[in-house]
Amino acid sequence: MEWQGDEWIECALCFCMAFCFVEMGDWRNWKSYYPTLLFFILGDFLYLYLLSDHYPMWRYNPQGIDEQVNLTNTHITFSIMAVKYPATILIFLHRFPKSSILKRTLYISGWVLLYTINEIIDIKLNLIKYSNGWSLKWSVFFNSVMFIILLIHHKRPVAAWTLSILFIFFLWNQFDVPSSVFR
Question: Averaged in consecutive runs of 10 residues, what is the pLDDT profile of the chain (183 residues)?
């Protein structure tokens, strides 16, 4: 099994995220971020369980060595939950500016841009495929709402759960998700 160029890019991104996690994340105080990390992961599990196989908005498409060792969309999603999400939470929440609304808005926008660039790389490398009306524009919108809700969850979990449920209903109706996904 020989690694291709796109696999090196994905591997480099994973190591970059892990490096940033160690260098920039507040891993010494991980317990204070743990509830928000679980909230983040639970949202992805909900998508994975309800929609991923029956009415996907997106699916990861294993390439090269990932495909050769029979990795699936689920394996890739779990690896994202294990590496990217903890790094995101421990850096995003720890370094969130406490100053002006402009700095806070720019900070959130920077994270949305970072996630968007990551997704564009995945698109270019054919590592992700959209379905059922989802697009990069929807991902940008989703990530914008997601980062705001993650921030809210860290301070006011009940408010974040309420907003999340409303957002799920909005997306559910927007994409006309069939009730058959409940199994």
Answer: 54 70 76 95 91 89 74 80 87 93 97 94 90 97 98 98 97 94 78
pLDDT computed for residue 9 by the predictor: 63
Name the token pair of 170.
Answer: 């909005």
Residue 70 DSSP symbol: T
CB 2 within 8 A of CB 63: no
Residue 161 structure tokens: 């759960």
Q: Report which DSSP code applies to 61.
A: -
Distance between CA atoms of 31 and 133, rounded to whole angstroms?
38
- pTM attached to this predicted model: 0.87
Q: Where does residue 109 fall: left (phi above 0), alpha (psi -120 to 50 degrees), or beta otherwise?
A: alpha
- Report residue 36 as tokens: 């928000």
Q: For residues 5-21, b (16+ Cβ closer than 10 Å) or e, as one string? A: ebbeebeebeeebeeeb
